[in-house]
């Protein structure tokens, strides 16, 4: 391997594949390596036999569940916000030509012991069962305020500068109850904890606007999801990279990251071969000495033969249980898809429950969420460590992604992609327009 690459990417998780594609488009010479013989890493989608083999070793799937080819079960399910940053990446790179997306039918929240649709506008707030009549009026006023608010027009701001005023003060101004604050902050703005309450309201304002805009785009819910599961996403970005000259090597061990006298990376060794490079982008498993464990995620993949109760029998949904509803520090997420997305046999649903582990008995933590699913045919639990890099990578040019968190949406993945891109380039990513594709030029 005498060639020198601008970047060697280690691991074919979604984060790494997106970056590989983006950097190839930017003209960088990219080599992408993975120790596995398949794309996706932790983000892979498995068929029925593979799921049983992974979690139960020699156990075989019951014939009643259908055929292997009927199933594409995500190990880490994520939905995309219709107007979100992830969709901007899809449009910018045009990888949508390889994928077909379908809307997720419902966005729900758990409050006071019951499931209800997340209101996404002042009109929905008025009819929501989440609130009493007086709270509905207050929520309607709040949503009207958000809808009309313009950052550069004081006449729309009612004396509130969201760039400086904390979100808690805005809730107080509109007299919103703690339960209402819960579903706005966690099920709409998708905050991971309550620290946002003491921070300037700008980010929450933008998140709520994103939710509303995404909901208005298709109706029913703000989320979309690819047909046949997430497994094709990493491969789609890999194809994009290859079109622009990227090289892929699967089933390739990574034995050492090689550094020069100045402490900066100069290559990656696999066996007795070393490829030269100027930078490395890697998932945490390839650089254990440069990451720290920040917690654990428990995920429970559940196979059902019925829709989730109390959701109007929808074929797919996201359900968020805000932390305060169960006296927790972290939200619990439920993502459910079905035959309509071609991830299961007809008449079956795949539901994934996930959260950050807080105790020594993780299964007990998700029990209240699993109960909401109704009878479960098969359940596959896993507890995995989550890592983040200990440095920004600028000193040694080794840029490391974060482990996938417990959320059932792509917003945190996209944040990581943008963060690594900016650290590598020294400039933010720009998704304006659509890239000029090499294969289109050839055509």
TrEMBL record:
InterPro entries: FAD/NAD-bd_sf, GDP_dissociation_inhibitor, RabGDI. GO terms for molecular function: Rab GDP-dissociation inhibitor activity. SUPFAM superfamilies: FAD-linked reductases, C-terminal domain, FAD/NAD(P)-binding domain. It comes from the Eukaryota. It holds the Pfam family GDI. One of its GO terms (biological process) is small GTPase-mediated signal transduction. GO terms for cellular component: cytoplasm. Belongs to the Rab GDI family. PANTHER family: RAB GDP DISSOCIATION INHIBITOR, RAB GDP-DISSOCIATION INHIBITOR. This is Rab GDP dissociation inhibitor.
